[in-house]
Amino acid sequence: MDLANGGGKIDMKRKWNWPIWIGFIVAIGGLFSYEFFAQFPVTRDFPWATLVLFGVGAVLLIVGLFRAFGRPQLYRGKIFGSIFTLITALLFAFFAYEIFYVLRQVPLSAQAPRVGQRAPSFSLPDQNGKEVALNDLLSPNGAVLIFYRGHW
Amino acid sequence: MRSFQQRLSDFTSRGVHVAAISVDSKEINENHCRKMGFTFPFLSDANADVIRLYDVLHRGAGPSGADIARPAEFYVDRAGTVKWVKLTENIAVRARPEQALSAIDAAARSQ
Asked: So where are chain B's domains?
């Protein structure tokens, strides 16, 4: 760095602006770790683990951008820092839309059997091909029925 | 589902069966149960008839717009009466075995 002689000319041996890279990796890792954290109820009911990773990534990216724009003669990263931050912001917007909007689009199920009503009887094949009727499940002390979205 | 498998003995010790229902085929259920070690019945409602009967159909929410079940949990007592219903407002938030167990215990106490 030679401010006196350089006169605004950028020194090509500027320092690696690590917070931009680490911040970007942490944020991307946060997005991809959602599937992992979704296995556990404590991080599935509310995706705080992913949000924390996004938050840490965002802080590092901002620190990196401040370095790149505040002291460009010392740190790299004006262009790729901006690109990484934009990508992270778009990914976060996508994630927030999925988590706070799409996942909440659940049908009303207004006609679902309510407490005190009779459960409609049925008979369906289980994983071994054996027909199982609701009545078979009710003795001796009732059954918990778990409707789920399936695996694909 | 994993958590229900982990607590399955708490259900069986109360004389309560656990059954999962989805539109998945018998073959998918067979593979999945073998892979995950699930020992309770996974029922295949491929045409979503029972899912409609319980009004827990989620239209077009499956792969390539297929109709699937929304997450929903019921405890039905031995007389066939619904004693507990959990209809989530968020697909990611599902009933935990502890909630079902306390509903079962509450139903037993009130008898």
From this structure: 2-109
Residues of chain A neighbouring B40 (CB-CB closer than 8 A): none
Please tell me if residue A101 touches chain B, with a CB cutoff of 8 Å: no
CA distance A69 to A139: 71
Helices A18-32 and A48-70 pack at an angle, to 10 degrees, of 160
The predicted model gives A59-70 an average pLDDT of 96
Residues 46-105 of B with CB under 8 A from A: 49-51, 53-59, 61-63, 68-85, 87-96, 100, 104
Please state, as a whole number, how many other Cβ atoms lie within 10 Å of the Cβ of residue A89: 14
Q: What is the 3-state secondary structure (H, E, C) of chain B?
A: CHHHHHCHHHHHCCCCEEEEEECCCHHHHHHHHHHHCCCCCEEECCCCHHHHHCCCEECCCCHHHCCEECCEEEEECCCCEEEEEEECCCCCCCCCHHHHHHHHHHHHHCC
**pLDDT for B110:** 86
- The whole-number pLDDT of residue A70 equals 94
Chain A nearest-CA distance from B7, in A, is 13
Q: Which residue of B2, B38, B45 is in closest CB contact with A124? A: B45
- List pLDDT tens digits, range A24-58: 999 999 999 998 998 888 898 999 999 999 999 99
Classify domain B2-109 by CATH number.
Answer: 3.40.30.10
The better pLDDT of the pair B14, A7 is held by: B14
CB hemisphere CA count around A61 (13 angstroms): 23
